[in-house]
Design goal:
With 232 residues, this protein is of the alpha+beta class. 54% of the residues lie in helices and 12% in strands.
């Protein structure tokens, strides 16, 4: 029979177990130790950088969205105006009534010419008042009120010739041709600087079809208010 003295092997077995336990603890604690190696200040700075990057990205997206929205609104407005012009043209060709918006879009509102013309032809309605050198008997306040009422009606599309015949304190049809300053007048025209200043100032500042107003002024428009439509 072989006898084994377990007293000689016991310490060695205990030593192996202890070594294994230490190795296991080292493996468990290693990730925690590694994490602890990163200083808190660096983590905070990294988090701040990420937050700033996210904020910048958000601001950029918001700006892009705003720009896209503005372009869309501008495109819609342009399409609306184009549609109104088409409506006015079609209705006019058919002799139908045109809406107020369509009339305005069709060109009654003042639009400055790209290049100031050398010759213009205009038609006007003079609304005078007592003491202005005409036969008018209305007060100055009444004249101003009436002039702006007629201007609004004309821009809504009422027949301008009819308004001239009904309201002007000048002689109907109230059509005048003018040449620009320094431009020789054509037959039947007047020199611009030979007319009331405000009359030419408005006539040369609007495009054909537009309707403008020359307000009363003691020097520039002494006879009263002129509602002026440029014919050509």
């Amino acid at each position: 029979m072989i006898r084994i003295d377990i007293r000689r092997h016991a310490p060695r077995t205990t030593g192996h177990a202890a070594a294994s336990l230490l190795l296991a603890l080292a493996l468990v604690l290693a990730p925690a130790t590694a994490l602890a190696d990163d200083p808190p200040a660096e983590k905070a700075e990294e988090a701040k950088e990420h937050a700033e990057e996210a904020k910048a990205a958000g601001q950029e997206k918001a700006a892009e969205a705003k720009e896209k929205s503005a372009k869309k609104a501008k495109s819609k407005e342009k399409a609306k105006k184009a549609s109104a012009k088409q409506e006015a043209a079609k209705a006019s060709a058919k002799g139908e009534t045109v809406s107020q918006d369509a009339k305005a879009a069709a060109g009654t509102m003042p639009v400055k010419p790209d290049v100031e013309p050398q010759h213009v032809q205009v038609q006007h309605i003079l609304i005078a008042f007592a003491g202005s050198g005409t036969r008018a008997t209305r007060s100055k306040d009444e004249a101003k009120k009436l002039a702006y009422e007629i201007l609004e009606r004309a821009r809504k599309g009422e027949d301008f010739d009819a308004l001239v015949r009904q309201h002007t304190d000048d002689s109907p049809p109230g059509i005048y041709g003018m040449s620009g300053i320094g431009v020789p007048p054509a037959p039947g025209e007047y020199a611009r600087n030979g007319m009331v200043p405000a009359f030419g100032n408005v006539g040369f500042a609007i495009s054909p079809g537009n309707i403008g107003m020359a307000d009363w002024d003691a020097q520039a428009s002494p006879y009263g208010w002129h509602i002026i439509k440029r014919l050509k």
